[in-house]
Amino acid sequence: MNLQFTPEENAFREEVRAFLADKLPADIQRKVRLGQQLSAEEHLRWQNRLSERGWLAPGWPVEHGGTGWSPVEKHIFEEECAAAHAPTVVPFGVNMVAPVIIRFGSEEQKRHYLPRILGNEDWWCQGYSEPGAGSDLAGLKTRAERDGDHYVVNGQKTWTTLGQHANMMFCLVRTDPKAKKQAGISFLLIDMNTPGISVRPIITLDGAHEVNEVFLDNVRVPVANRVGEEGEGWTCAKFLLTHERTGIAGLGHAKQALRHLKHVARRQTHHGRPLIESPSFREQLARAELELMALEVTNLRVLAAARDGGAPGAESSLLKIRGSELRQRLSDLTRRALGPQALPFFADFLAGDDDSLADDQSFAAAATAQYFNRRKLSIYGGANEIQKNIVAKTILGM
Amino acid sequence: MDFSLSDEQRMLDETVTRLVADRCTPEQRRRLIQERGTAPSALWNTFAELGLLAMPFGEDAGGLGGDGIDLMLIMQALGRGLVPEAYLDGLVIPGTLLARLADDTLRDRWLTSLLEGEHQLALAWHEAASRYDIDTPATRAERSDDGWRLQGRKQVVLNAPGAAALLVTAGLADDSLGLFIVPADAEGLQRRDYTTLDDQRASDIDIDVTLPAPALLASGEALLAALGEALALGRAALCAEAVGAMEVACEQTLEYLKERQQFGAPLSRQQVLQHRMVDMRLHLEQARSMAILAAASLTLPEEQRDYRVAAAKAYVGEAAQFVAEQAIQLHGGMGMTEECYVAHYAKRLIMLDHALGDRDYHLETVMARLDSAA
């Protein structure tokens, strides 16, 4: 056992740093640092740089275009990207649908979709949640009826993140209304330009347009766009959710958030002294630091176990719970560190449409909106309470 | 970065785990506590035969050269069995100091026999006003014609009743710190022995002894460096022991929830108790990570080592308390009884936070170094 990074791992970190210093566009970096929303063009510009380097899909098998990195190298990569204020790669194609296609898709589907994902030619979104099916995802009602070589899909999906930019959606639909809940679900790939699809924005409590509702009205989807067998969609869904949870501790983001928090706490004054010297604030900072240290080692333990034993199991639920709680706590401390400066709400600036704020305004502008935005961390990907149900059932046998 | 155990470490883990399971059942443990004297127990002799007493010491000191992870594995197993042997206080901490500081004569006299299991030692540092600071004792050492005169009063000296000699901290004339070795039968030592709530042996000791000149093991910076090393080792070991005890507290609580019928169903069907149980496991896993971090940081440069060990001790202390309190709560009235074995784990989990600096003490260390921390 040895928790020091090897010389090779340290060299890899330097390589990632050099790449980020060289290739991360300054305008994009600044927006991420200030918490401004990125445009589709900005997301793609960054992801194309990663593609050119062959680093877009670290989670894929090498034969499909993966990097062949060890879990520790992936961890280092994520950490360095977050530290450099690189945008998070939009996960729906590369980290969500692609693993499902690789695992369950036909050769034809692999040949068609995987290169397009690696080349950022398609923008994928997720068609999972519905107004009546959140944590209880298997209660979904969107139905797909067979009509020759097509399914005719009717229903409504929601919480579709960045669906406003998407041209493809992976979608869970009910193909057999008579089957039991988890049976009778199929996994479809849907072209968003098919007639009958409409996307409407949902404005979240932080004023942002990040998520959407998607309405499907007699949408004709070729049967060839089904991944896996008819009625086997739940297997794909579960596989995808496990994958989704792998990186969900958000270690790199948490580390960056703590660095930012310390920066804010040094800059703010309290009784004429830097806030970071206030005993009560400092104690909370120290507690967050401890939690981060523990979480980092736990994360590495889970990654190492995953490397040795296949797909990550229910232990990743533990990471999801603690990681989301920590990131929420950090966003809470950052907001509180700003005092009255947390009050202004510059919506145009946060949307990325306005760049006229003074330095001392822009530096604080995103904190409060982010605090509210981060509430989502304990809700999505299976709410933390659902994660606890999973751990109780699968690890503890309760 | 590598989390796997070597073949030797896996064997060590299995050996100690099996030994503890065979030789420290609740009934055997009760007897071990009742029969404790100054002579080592039969279990201690087995420790010696298996090389466990030599494991945490360097080969130059006659040890087996085990590292922090080896010690972690041993302490976890001892924690799982609530083994009432002073492995840490009677062997590891004083032995580490002797190995670092003693000359050949003193090594021959005290260290070799320590590693062979012939006797145990104790570090007498705590005083009424010292709280968790080891470097400012009120006990004084004055030079006499042919040696030293030591005067003072030590409190809660863990394992003093089982020790053949004490390592005693005292202030020297120039206010630097000194460490002396004092045979337990020295004239002028007055011990009041007692048992702690979690079944450890300890003493309060009045000291007024004269010692030969070589009784001073070390002083000043050399001593502080050795103490820093021994305390870091001790703190990391306590984290590991806590993890072992937390494992069992979690196991026993889970078992009880599955067994205990209320309202016509096992308690484990109650979602509120399921989630509480998951919270206990979360605390355990995070504490385990911190114990690993501490054990793997013992060879780092002093500042980094102490920061990580303090972080681990602060974190584990808090997590251990959560698990202890919930273990009692989830056992209901049974958890309040002497008869219920999990209560003994709860007691140990709470009390080990009081050894070598509690969660508040170590949190302050983390707070003080927050800006420079790597």
Mind explaining what this structure looks like?
The complex is a heterodimer of chains A (398) and B (374). Chain A is α+β, with helices and mostly antiparallel strands and 398 residues long. Chain A folds into three domains: 7-89, no CATH class; 123-231, Butyryl-CoA Dehydrogenase, subunit A, domain 2; 247-395, Butyryl-CoA Dehydrogenase, subunit A, domain 3, CATH 1.20.140.10. Chain A contains 14 helices and ten strands. In chain A, a hairpin with a 2-residue loop joins strand 2 and strand 3. Chain A is globular, with a radius of gyration of 22 Å. The model of chain A has no long low-confidence stretch (mean pLDDT 93). Chain B is an alpha+beta fold. Chain B has three domains: 7-119, Acyl-CoA dehydrogenase/oxidase, N-terminal domain (Butyryl-Coa Dehydrogenase, subunit A, domain 1, Orthogonal Bundle); 121-218, Butyryl-CoA Dehydrogenase, subunit A, domain 2 (Beta Barrel), CATH 2.40.110; 222-368, Butyryl-CoA Dehydrogenase, subunit A, domain 3, CATH 1.20.140. Helices cover 51% and strands 17% of the residues of chain B. Chain B is built from eleven helices and ten strands. Chain B has a four-stranded mixed beta sheet. In chain B, helix 5 (87-101) packs antiparallel against helix 6 (104-115), helix 7 runs antiparallel to helix 8 and helix 7 packs parallel to helix 9. The longest helix of chain B is centred in the middle third of the chain and has 40 residues, at 220-259. The model of chain B has no long low-confidence stretch (mean pLDDT 96). The A-B interface holds A 1-6, 9, 72, 262, 276, 279, 282-283, 285-287, 289-291, 293-298, 300-301, 304, 308, 315, 318, 321-322, 385, 388-389, 391-392, 395-398 and B 1-5, 9, 69, 254, 257-258, 268-269, 271, 274-275, 277-279, 281-282, 285-290, 292-293, 295-297, 308, 311, 314-315, 363, 366-367, 370-371, 373. Chain B: Its cofactor is FAD. Chain B: Residues 6-118 form the Acyl-CoA dehydrogenase/oxidase N-terminal domain. Chain B: GO terms for molecular function: acyl-CoA dehydrogenase activity; flavin adenine dinucleotide binding. Chain B: This is Acyl-CoA dehydrogenase.
